[in-house]
Amino acid sequence: MFWRLLWKLLRGSGGRLAVAILALVSCAMVVSALLNLEFDIERKLTQEFRTLGANLLISPRNAQITGSSPAEVMIESEVSAAIQSVKDPNVMAAAPFLYVVGSAQNTAVVIAGTHLEELPKLEPAWRIEGEWKSSQAQQTACLVGRNVAQQLKLAVGSSVSLTYLKKNAQLKVAGIIDAGGAEDNQVFLELAEAQDLAGLPGQISFAQLSVSGTTTGISHYAARLAAALPAYEVKPIRQITEAEGDLLSRIRLLIVSMIVLISALTALCVLGTMAALAMERRQDVGLMKALGGSIGRIVTLFMAEVGVLGAAGGFIGAILGLELSRWMGQRVFGQAISSRWEIFPWTIILTVAIALAGALPLRLLGKVKPAIIFREQ
Amino acid sequence: MFGRLVKESFVRNPRRKLLTAAALVVGMAVATSTLTIALEVGDRLAREFRSLGANLLVTPQSDTLPVEIGGVDYRPVNEGAYLSEADLGKMKTIFWRHNVLGFTPFLDVPIAIQQSENAAPTRTMLIGTWNAKEVPVPDGTTFKTGVSVTHPWWKIRGRWFRDGANECVIGAALAKTMPGIVPGKVIYVSDETGVNSVQDHSTLAKGTPLEVVGIVSTDDAEDKAVLAPLEIAQNISGHPGKFRQLFVSALTKPADAFSERDPLKMTPTEYDRWFCSPYISSIAFQIKTVLPGTEVRTIRRVADTEGNILSRVSTLLWIVTLTALIAAALAVAATSATTVLERRGEVGVMKALGATNTLVAGIFLAEQLLLAIAGASMGFVLGALLARSLGSSIFGTPASPRLILFPVVLGLAAIVAFTGSLIPLRRAAHFNPAPILRGE
Description:
The complex is a heterodimer. Helix content of chain A is 55%, strand content 20%. Chain A is an alpha+beta fold. Chain A has 2 domains: 2-47 and 247-376, no CATH class; 55-236, no CATH class. In chain B, 48% of the residues lie in helices and 19% in strands. Chain B contains 13 helices and 16 strands. Chain B has a 6-stranded mixed β-barrel with strand order 5-6-13-10-12-11. A two-stranded antiparallel ribbon of chain B has the order 2-3. In chain B, strands 4-14 form a two-stranded antiparallel sheet. In chain B, helix 2 packs parallel to helix 11 and helix 11 runs antiparallel to helix 12 (405-429). Chain B is elongated. Classes of the chains: A alpha+beta, B alpha+beta. The interface between A and B is large, with 84 and 89 residues.
């Protein structure tokens, strides 16, 4: 009897049902899409912030204050062993650097030795004309800053000779870097070459890391790395980490508050629709009561109807919403946002709750005498 | 007759109208607040991004290669080209002068410091700069700028030096290696070359006395140097009125394919559009025009990150706003559809009494229009208030209401309420009055 009535109710209302379903589906869709987005947004944004370049610096504890010569150095193998041992998937790039002031064709220039293939990962904002690393390694490759190239009239493919004290190295320019900073005045070559030239085998001036994540995540990683490297100083580069943390929290606040606002207001709209649908059922309630139905049973029946509507709307809406958030991720970040299935039950529960809340006015009708309801229409 | 029917409908059953109106108010409040935030977010976030510091670097064009490690230039003072400090007021005369939030000149000099006149010297760098300098602008006003704008992450213990006073602040790392130096102490600063040539400290040229007023920590090369007013650095280096590097912090619009094009190859209209957009490239170009002989470079890390994130966040917000609009529209349309469906009986009576379909539709649509106007007006006010409080909680300053959005919201409400009732009305046109009146 109960189920037959329920079935009749669902089938009988025709257009009204379609309207209610439409409202519920759109609400569930927006809520699930935005929730899914919210879970993933931080990771996506922290990755974007890596364009800022290195944000962690490992340096000798008491680096000497002056000097155009390599003052204090670190042992390369110790540093790389520590970076290897403290594993973290958030480390986007790590590169050791050895700086010396030498000369290129009789002009004083800063020579930086590093792992050239790490540079584009460490500093994604740098532009290069040519290649990051020469593909045909007949001659040792180097990268020169824009200003160096201009000053020394170098082009991609030309060769340059570097001198440090008495030593000499012949290199081929693989690419010209446009960094918009001090790096435009430097020459980059493979670390081993630079160590050889400087006569400092196995030594580096400092190491830079680009670590993705929140401010706390980065400082945790820095602390672990510092524990593995007691002899050296590990510190976040404040210009970057501080601004990044601040901006990230603001952007998240912005998006979260938009999401809360939209979800709440959409839910309110749907509540109105459901209430309208429930009020329409007054006559049915009156009729059932006149036929001797207990008010508890009648209300349960209608709540069941509304609950089924909510569940169906929530289910369809959640699927559409996850699809929508995938599309949003593709559109905004160029990569899809992974669907989180735990959102699925929550969306359905929320939609059912909204639908039931909308049907609550029916309870009030229980007190009304059937005759009054009939006369009113 | 028509007007009376509409009026009666409102007076007789206000509760029914209330539901549609409430849905309209809430829906339009969503539309107004999300649109207000989305319109404002670009400007606000761009300003927030200035916490990354300067995004443009101005250097002399005919400069020799700077020998710079960790931000400090180790070139001898006599080498390389300099720029004139007196020209800097012109920075506030460019087309996008209001977008230039601040600029700070820098001059690095190798120095020797002594804790007392006869003490052993320590060699380090002196960085001459501005703390909060009043720069005279050619139009007669002054503009206050300095390191707090271009290097906001620098932290000071004590206080900053006053521009023009014989004061300095020292880097945290330097302070650690020289324990005698505390705020309030006077140090003696002289050109490093003096130390090289004279073996005996007592015959050293008398240094400039500077009072240490604070300890600065920057997590960069400045931690190992002394920061002093630009004038002091100019006097020690023997280049009065000159500087070597200028950091500029400017509000910009994210770069796109158009802004990356070479301005020399643009048509006059394109050139005007480029010149009149606050792209970083056009601001750089304008700075170069007022400061001839300079090279203006974009600090790529900062500018690119800002551009990427700004454009992504605003795209994201627009999409979210659009979704919110669609969801609100659907919910409102659903509510108006329900209220129309509810009144099938009424339609039946009207048609039985000889009303044409057009008249029935006209009455319903007029009602919906009235509701839409009322709902949209209230929703607009509510949405503007919401956007205000959202703006102040996110960015610290309330988002100003935009009246331009009112007609948009009004139109949206009308369209939504109309479309919501159109489908049930079309069905109502095919109603046969008899079964409806019989109550089927």
